[in-house]
Amino acid sequence: MTCLPQTTTRKLGLVIDLDTCVGCHACVISCKGWNTENYGAALSDIDAYGAQPAGTFLNRVHSYEVEPANGCATQTVHFPKSCLHCEDAPCVTVCPTGASYKRAEDGIVLVNEDACIGCGLCAWACPYGARELDAVAGVMKKCTLCVDRIYNENLPEEDRVPACVRTCPSGARHFGDLGDPSSAVSQLVESRGGFDLMPELGTKPTNKYLPPRPKDRLQGVASEPAAGPSATGFFAWLDRALEKI
Amino acid sequence: MHPAPSVIVFTVLSGAGFGYLAFLGLGLSTGTGAIAFWQFALGFGMAVAGLVSSTFHLGNPQRALLAFTQWRTSWLSREAWASCSALLVMAGFAVAAIFFGRILNVVGVLGASLCLATVVATSMIYAQMATVPRWNSPLTPGYFIACALTAGAILSAQNHLAVVCLIGLALIQTVCWQRGDRRFTERGHSIASATGLGSKGRTRLFEAPHTGTNYLLKEFGFHVARRHAAKLRVIGMALLCVLPALILSSASGGMAVALAFVIHLAGAFVSRWLFFAEAEHVVQLYYGHQPQGATG
């Protein structure tokens, strides 16, 4: 059913710390691994060992360079991006078959692959590039928030988080209920000033991004290397003598 | 946006077909018997060929019937309903005209309304996309309706009406191009709002997430040279409106109508190619692409 739920009981999502992410792409690989071996059609690769490899991924890490206006050092910001599980998800309402839906219980946006005709409209409607049509299966693939891990009682409790969160070596990814103001993720967003991507489109994303902290500026370092103290006495003579050789 | 041939063929042919069927339904130059047979064959032929072509870009077309289920929210689903009911009602109208020599006015007007509703639904699939600022405007349904009515008027040999439609279409097309060129920037989308890093300083792409291509770049990353687009706009406008208007205002008869329609249809293909090729999707901002006419 492609009508969006009025409200969802919980708002499960991710908080991504742009200050901490080191751009190692481990989340990209673990996501591809888990989601190829488990829920739904495999994430295919085309020409994987050839000259022009391409493939389906649910999570990708862009890297940006930010040049502050005040002359502070330029920062490199690694920027992981996957489905933001928007409250007002435009990808859901455009779906003609009802394959795309948003769950009322936890707010996760999913695709029922058995009903997907692969028209691609949901990918057109998504501003974030979170959906990719799989070239082999012909169905739309997207982040499931690892719905087959987070409720999976066959897994040890510490593994019941999305694969990207579990694997992140720098602790830049956090998972939780963003609808509960007392949850750890909500507190984190509150204290660090978490923000939405492209808020002007009114999609109301659940996932939040934490801004990179400004870089320190080294004090007392001049831009030109300073001339060393000039030598006197014996060393001055030695200096001159060595110059002449 | 990638200008997929199947979608261009679909929107051009089904638009013209439903436009002509609408005119036939209104009884403008609708014949009876054998004449009606060939008229309806042309209208139905274009409409159905377009609809069939639209299924070629689907990943799993065998499930296409499911597309009738979500009419409450989805314009694609509404288009499925509108097109099928338009074709059914017009089929009844056509049978009466061809085999019984009767023009059923009420059925015809209903059929014509459904034909135009189909064109509106098709256009809304594009107009609803907030992610493609060039399309996300009431001008998009205006442009699609104008194309359909113009094709219908030309084929109905209503030469005076056709010339009026051609002038109207030329105006709408010009406004679409002029407003469309500015729309992305006017809406305020930028790499700063896309990444949320704008308040930290000037943001640019340092490294793309992948060295190869992907679905997003193939589907949305189509870059057409502006120089190329400017030439195509001139060619498109000449074929779409100027030449057909000159032919129809200086000559009459079957040959003039046929020639004007073929030239107009060729112009519609050029115009529709530009409609897709020039449309820019906001996701390109994440890949460091500067939209047309944007600064900073």
Helical stretch tally of chain B: 10
Quaternary status of these chains? heterodimer
Which architecture of chain A would the CATH scheme give at its second level? 2-Layer Sandwich
Number of strands of chain A: 11
Question: How many helices of chain A does DSSP assign?
Answer: 7
Q: What do the pLDDT scores of chain B average to?
A: 93
Structural class of chain A: alpha+beta
Summarize the main sheet of chain B: none
Task: List segments of chain B where confidence is low: pLDDT < 50 over at least 5 consecutive residues.
Answer: none
The shape of chain A, in one word, is elongated
Q: Which structural class should the secondary elements of chain B be placed in?
A: mainly alpha
The level-1 CATH class of chain A: Alpha Beta
Biggest interface, chains and residues, is:
A-B, 70 and 58 residues
Largest sheet of chain A: 3 strands, mixed
Rg of chain A (CA only): 25 Å
What is the strand arrangement across the widest sheet of chain A? 10-1-11
Distance separating the two termini of chain A: 88 Å
Strand content of chain A: 15-25%
Task: Explain this structure.
The complex is a heterodimer of chains A (about 240) and B (about 300). Chain A is built from seven helices and eleven strands. Helices cover about 20% and strands about 20% of the residues of chain A. A three-stranded mixed β-sheet of chain A has the order 10-1-11. Chain A has a two-stranded antiparallel ribbon with strand order 2-3. Chain A has a single domain, classed as Alpha-Beta Plaits (2-Layer Sandwich), CATH 3.30.70. Chain B is mainly α and about 300 residues long. Chain B folds into two domains: about 1-130, no CATH class; about 160-295, no CATH class. Helices cover about 65% and strands about 0% of the residues of chain B. Chain B is built from ten helices and one strand, in the order αααααααβααα. Chain B is globular. The relative contact order of chain B is 0.13. The interface between A and B is large, with 70 and 58 residues. Chain B: One of its GO terms (biological process) is anaerobic electron transport chain. Chain B: Keywords: Membrane, Transmembrane, Transmembrane helix. Chain B: It holds the Pfam family DmsC. Chain B: One of its GO terms (molecular function) is dimethyl sulfoxide reductase activity.
